[in-house]
Specification:
By secondary structure, the chain is mainly beta. It is built from three helices and 93 strands.
């Protein structure tokens, strides 16, 4: 009957389904019980949901859910917690032994099998046979009880005849119980062991079974008698006699050697030598001469399973002998270059065995009377060399100067005797020409011209001829060039090249010989890697000859290099050379270490191009290779201009870049003829002295196809010179910052060409026209500070500008201007400023801080837009050029055009139905941004234009929806400003965030700030007074597209009295250069605090605030370039200015994102981290748009989860673990974490292009229980 019931229940239970799959929390394979006792068989389940639980024994149903099914009254179900379904058996019988199954009605059935073992009697506890302890220490006796739930008690007998007593916990005894898996282990700790503690100790289980062990107490031996002797100035030898013990064995010694002078202690573990005589010894070298050391010794004894160290011996003081090196010998000096020489010498013959740490080489020039000029003495220290010949390099030598050189060895205590002075005359080599050549291809060579010695090269001419038919032909070469490429040569031909010209006033010449190869070497194809064993691989490749254009190489070189975070010098790099075959086996590799393989062909002329690097590693679990690179056809990463207009004789410099896998070969063609050499991935073409129009074509070729793009080079005639009236030069001079003893004279070029001024002369006179000061200043100067003046006195400044006149005359007085001021009687008096009029008074609108660039749209069609702009607020002669940029809504730059200052109209070719942002900037000759403006262009679709044409008077034509931003500065002071903005034409829900960029006049990005869509204001601080800034604001939607954009400029004011105290010492941090893997961090240090600085410390951290780089630099350093960064990642640069005592004087930081690569996925946003239990965490995130969208860039194919242990300050304390996820799931449960620990979690997305940047870190702490 019960069998039928069981079948029916199982059939019904299998019909139940659940969303979350249940699982067992832990597995226990066996339970031991004693006959007649009670026992519990555990079963813990999580995520049970609507599923049911049943227990069975040998296919007999016992319980269903929490109800008993069997008639056996001894069986019951216990549930102390929600997840526990424990089976309880009372009065255990031998027939109860067997397999018990805890089952869940999933489909298929899930079960956990536990074996019950029934014993006839309770087993006894397990204790060691004997325990030994040293008197005065602790003794520990460990007892393993039969059952995890058992309770143990302890008792003691002095001997077998005495009565036992129960041990309770007090100052003498500690009773310790184990935890977790060791809960059945109980430990008795006996403190301060004495001889009276010897005897028998018993551990008793709850069943009454007990086991005993004996304790023996060992009296510690007396410290050994130690003797120390100085064998040499740098070596000590210690001797002692091994103690004899009957109760314990001597396993070794601990030796303590302490330097009395420095307090540094050395500890050595010394093994016993088991000498029959019992004598022990130990020697230590590399000590300091003439130094006192304190030596002590302690004996190590074997006490059971432990090693115990005894007491230290009495202190022994020993002093090493005094030693100073003798003078080195055989000192010789040899010239190396125009400003350097090499010094060699032999170490001295040491009379005593002392250690020389290094040598100090001193050299100084000699005067005409052969006396040394000690004020110009220099010293070079050399360490780390070995052998009988040492050498050093002397630098900073002057030609035709005699020097005196001496060498002396030194130890830790000081410098020894110097060698005899050696005289050396630093001569200069006669000037010579040197011509070097290198084969580039079968029909081109590279020639390099260099000069040896001192002398200026001039009138350089170059010739060449075939060796078989001598007939010198002249090459086009200029004295200003250092190298040239000669093309059009014949393969397999011998050539002579000759250069001649004047150097140092004398005619010199040089000849070199080059033989061109018969054919060009090609790139090996189809490189593959297969593992042959756990530590070896086989590399295979093909070498394809196309149409006889190349010949087989002599052999191949296989380059293998580790790819890890180690320094380049520490990475393993191996080369394998093979002949007459296209395969090689590489052995002795390390599993789970990534390597890069490259193959290159070679012949008698050199190596060919290398293959693209193939990345692989060998997994420990199997002999398999990771597939890293997937092939795809070539494509251009930058669009070449359709036309390039130049003047005759100018230089063309243009770069063509393409990517693909394998990396394509990029080559240039001039009117269909190949020019230059092919290159992998990127090829820069440099053509000098272009005289005619041509068509340049760039072709990218790989095994998956070839593509090409062209640009036209057009010659334009020189513009006619302006014959109108020449511009007059005008300057304005003022006096400002007037105090009682100081004032500043400032000036500004307000008309004419500033570059025509070579230098200024300024005269300072008093009210009687007596000249107090005259100074000559560079032409770029715009102010001069006066100090130590008399309070309440009148001073006059006369400024004169000198330079080239319009007629070409040099150093001519161009103009002069004056200004005067009266210093304050005290610094509390109200400031005044007196200004004398300049020669030409500037018009009111000529203010570089008020320049404005109105930009308007004249006409828009589906395929074009006509733009017009003007320049107001400043004399147009200050404008050197305009720059026009067109960007898409994805913030991609579609067009960058440099325009002449007289061009103010531009017709753009656009796509129908698209949205564009157009920005125009005006630059002066020094590269500063004078003004900028941005507008939005929405081209109508062709359908919309047709509808507009057909619209009647009663109908309105459809209009493209446009959003606009208005950005306005407020509360602008000398060091801060508040920027407010408003959004029109779009709802707040259409915007995901705002992005604000602030730049200076040099177009350097000072700030990039991402803000919430509710934001409408931002306050900028740490600005510089009287400085012009440019702000660019973008409204971005949730797909990363730009909804609206605007730009504006503002100028900070002069500092007030209160601001001057602090703002003159502000530290500003900004980026001068930012790329996908590079950043140049720069900072501005005000001159006022520069004398108080001793250095600068720069630290670069990642988004998880983990320090990647810490660099200490001179106080004069103003920038740091960091390379090998990750594209699209977020970093933070911290800059600290250190004072003379090492304190932090000023600090600042800058957060920035490196440029993303095309198609890179966006940075995920972790929404929640939920602690599931004490060993698991659930992480949930959402995707963000790609920062550089491309086709399919938002289609995520997987993720990687990074997590690591961190401390309370959120700094990682372990390595980073990675968990890959395939598919589009946006949450994961991470199991097997450590209870009671704190973790950091980050997420990165992956698409068909690459991995994206890591998310901001999120932290979670797991409970202990």
């Amino acid at each position: 009957m019960w069998t039928a019931v069981l079948i029916c229940l199982c059939h019904c239970l299998l019909l139940v389904t659940s969303q979350d799959a249940p699982e067992f929390l832990e597995e226990q394979q066996q339970v031991v019980a004693v006959k007649g006792t009670q026992t519990i068989i555990p079963c813990r389940i999580k995520n049970l949901g609507s599923h049911r639980v049943l227990w069975s024994f040998e296919k007999i149903l016992l319980t269903f859910d929490d109800r008993r099914i069997t008639d056996d009254m001894r069986i019951s179900l216990e549930r102390p917690y929600k997840t526990e379904w424990n089976l309880h058996i009372g009065d255990v019988r031998p027939t109860d032994a067997g397999m018990y199954s805890c089952q869940i009605n999933t489909n298929p059935m899930t079960s956990q099998i536990i074996k019950l073992v029934v014993l006839d009697e309770q087993p006894s506890p397990v204790v060691p046979d004997e325990v030994a302890a040293m008197a005065g220490t602790k003794a520990e006796i460990m007892c393993k009880l039969p059952d995890t739930n058992d309770i143990g008690t302890w008792s003691y007998k002095a001997d077998e005849k005495s009565e036992g007593r129960t041990i309770i916990e007090n100052d003498k005894y500690d009773l310790l119980a184990g935890e977790g898996q060791d809960s059945h282990v109980h430990t008795l700790v006996i403190n301060d062991v004495r001889a009276g503690d010897e005897g028998f100790y018993f551990c008793r289980a709850r069943s009454g079974a007990q086991s005993g062990t004996s304790l023996k107490v060992v009296v510690p031996p007396p410290p050994p008698s130690l003797e120390a002797k100085a064998e040499s100035p740098n070596k000590l030898t210690m001797r002692w006699k091994r103690p004899v013990l009957g109760q314990a064995d001597v396993t070794g010694y601990t030796l303590y050697i302490n330097n009395i002078e420095t307090g540094k202690e050395h500890i050595f573990e010394v093994d016993s030598n088991e000498d029959p005589t019992g004598l022990e010894s130990f020697s230590m070298g590399d000590l300091t001469t003439n130094t006192t050391y304190m030596v002590q010794l302690a004996t190590k004894l074997q006490m059971g399973d432990e090693v115990v160290t005894g007491k230290k011996s009495p202190e022994v003081n020993i002093t090493t002998p005094y030693f100073m090196p003798d003078a080195p010998g055989w000192v010789k000096v040899k010239r190396q270059s125009d400003d350097a020489a090499e010094v060699t010498w032999r170490p001295p013959d040491a009379k005593t065995s002392g250690i020389i740490r290094g040598y100090r080489v001193t050299y100084y020039p000699l005067a005409g009377n052969r006396k040394p000029i000690l004020a110009k003495q220099k010293t070079v220290e050399v360490e780390g060399q070995e052998g009988n010949r040492w050498e050093a390099r002397l630098t900073g030598l002057r030609p035709k100067t005699r020097y005196q050189v001496q060498v002396a060895g030194y130890t830790r205590k000081g410098v020894g005797r110097s060698s005899k002075p050696v005289g050396y005359l630093h001569k200069t080599l006669p000037p010579e020409l040197s011509l070097n050549g290198r084969v580039l291809s079968k029909n081109s060579v590279l020639l390099t011209v260099t000069s040896l010695g001192n002398g200026k090269m001039g009138n350089i001419k170059m010739f060449y001829t075939e060796a078989s038919q001598p007939s010198w032909k002249r090459l086009d070469f200029s004295s200003e060039w250092k190298f040239t490429v000669v093309g059009g040569l014949d393969p397999r031909t011998s050539y002579f090249f000759k250069v001649k010209g004047k150097i140092g006033g004398k005619m010199k010449h040089s000849v070199t010989h080059i033989t061109t190869p018969p054919h060009d070497l090609l790139v090996p194809q189809a490189v593959s890697v297969s593992a042959t064993a756990s530590t070896s691989i086989e590399v295979l490749w093909d070498y394809v000859i196309a149409n006889g254009s190349s010949s087989l190489p002599l052999g191949y070189i296989v380059h293998l290099e580790e790819t890890s975070e180690k320094d380049e010098d520490e990475r393993r790099h191996r080369q394998s050379v093979v002949f007459n075959r296209t395969s090689v086996e590489v052995k002795d590799l390390t599993p789970d270490v990534k390597y890069t393989i490259q193959v290159v062909a070679f012949n008698g002329f050199g190596e060919g191009p290398r293959t693209d690097g193939l990345l692989f590693h060998i997994a420990e679990s199997g002999v398999k290779q990771d597939a890293v690179n997937e092939p795809y056809p070539p494509r251009f990463t930058h669009v070449l201009p359709e036309e390039l207009s130049i003047q005759s004789g100018e230089t063309v410099k243009i770069t063509c870049e393409a990517d693909g896998y394998p990396v394509p070969e990029v080559r240039w063609f001039d009117n269909g003829e190949p020019i230059g050499e092919p290159a992998q991935g990127s090829n820069q073409l440099f053509m000098a002295n272009v005289r005619q129009s041509t068509v340049l074509t760039c072709r990218a070729t790989s095994q998956w196809g070839d593509i090409e793009t062209s640009t036209k080079v057009l010659m334009v005639k020189d513009e006619e010179e302006d014959t109108g009236q020449e511009d007059n030069l005008a300057i304005g001079v003022i006096t400002t910052n007037i105090m009682s003893t100081t004032l500043t004279v400032a000036w500004e070029i307000i008309a004419g060409d500033p570059e025509s001024i070579d230098h200024f002369e300024i005269d300072i006179t008093d009210d009687t026209d007596r000249i107090l000061l005259t100074r000559t200043l560079p032409g770029q100067t715009n102010s001069f500070n006066l100090r130590s003046l008399q309070p309440g006195a009148e001073y006059r400044a006369k400024l004169r500008a000198y330079g080239a006149s319009p007629t070409g005359k040099q150093d001519e007085l161009l103009l002069e201007a004056t200004a005067s001021a009266v210093t304050l009687s005290s610094d509390d008096e109200e400031r005044t400023t007196t200004t004398r009029a300049p020669i030409v008074t500037p018009p009111p609108q000529q203010n570089k801080y008020r320049a404005w660039l109105p930009l308007s749209i004249v006409d828009v069609t589906p395929n074009s837009a006509l733009l017009s702009w003007d320049f107001t607020g400043l004399d147009p002669r200050y404008v050197h050029l305009f720059e026009l940029k067109v960007k898409s809504r994805s913030n991609f730059t579609l067009l960058t055009e440099t325009l002449k200052p007289n061009l103010k109209v531009m017709d753009l070719t656009l796509q129908p139905g698209q949205f564009y942002f157009v920005q125009v900037r005006a630059f002066d000759r020094s590269g500063r941004v004078l003004a900028l403006n941005t507008t939005q262009v929405a081209t109508p679709s062709k359908e919309m234009q047709e509808e507009t044409v057909e619209t009647t008077d009663e109908e309105e034509a459809p209009v493209l929806k446009r959003a606009s931003l208005t950005l306005t500065p407020h509360a602008v002071t000398g060091e801060a400003a508040r920027l407010d903005w408003s959004l029109a034409g779009a709802q707040q829900e259409d915007i995901d965030q705002f992005v604000l960029k602030v730049k200076d006049e040099q177009d350097r990005t000072l700030l990039r700030q991402d803000m919430r869509r509710e934001s409408r204001s931002l306050t900028l601080s740490n600005l510089s007074p009287r400085t012009k800034y440019f702000a660019e604001l973008l409204a971005v939607d949730d797909k990363g597209a730009t909804v609206a954009m605007t730009t504006m400029s503002f100028t900070t004011t002069s500092l007030t009295t209160d601001e001057t105290d602090d703002d003159s010492t502000n530290l500003r941090v900004f980026t001068e250069e930012l790329d996908s893997n590079l950043v140049k961090v720069a900072w501005y240090v005000p001159p006022k605090i520069l004398p108080d600085l001793s250095g600068v410390t720069v630290q670069l951290t990642d988004i998880a605030n983990v320090a990647l780089l810490t660099q200490q630099m001179s106080a004069l350093t103003r920038s740091l370039t960091v390379r090998n960064l990750q594209p699209g990642e977020r970093y933070k640069a911290h800059v600290e200015l250190k004072g003379q005592r090492g304190e932090v004087v000023r600090s600042g930081f800058l957060e920035f994102d490196t440029e993303p690569t095309p198609g890179m996925p966006g940075r995920p946003d972790i929404r929640d981290v939920e602690v599931a239990n004490n060993s698991a965490v659930r992480v949930e995130w959402r995707n963000t748009p790609s920062p550089s969208p491309a086709a399919g860039s938002n289609e995520i194919t997987g993720y990687v989860i990074n997590f690591a242990l961190v401390d309370n300050s959120n700094q990682p304390t372990s390595g980073t673990y990675q968990l890959p996820i395939f598919g589009s799931a946006q949450y994961v449960v991470i199991p097997n974490l450590r209870a009671g620990q704190r973790y950091m979690f980050q997420v990165a997305a992956r698409n068909q292009y690459s991995f994206g940047p890591m998310s901001a870190p999120v932290f979670a702490s797991l409970p202990r229980n």
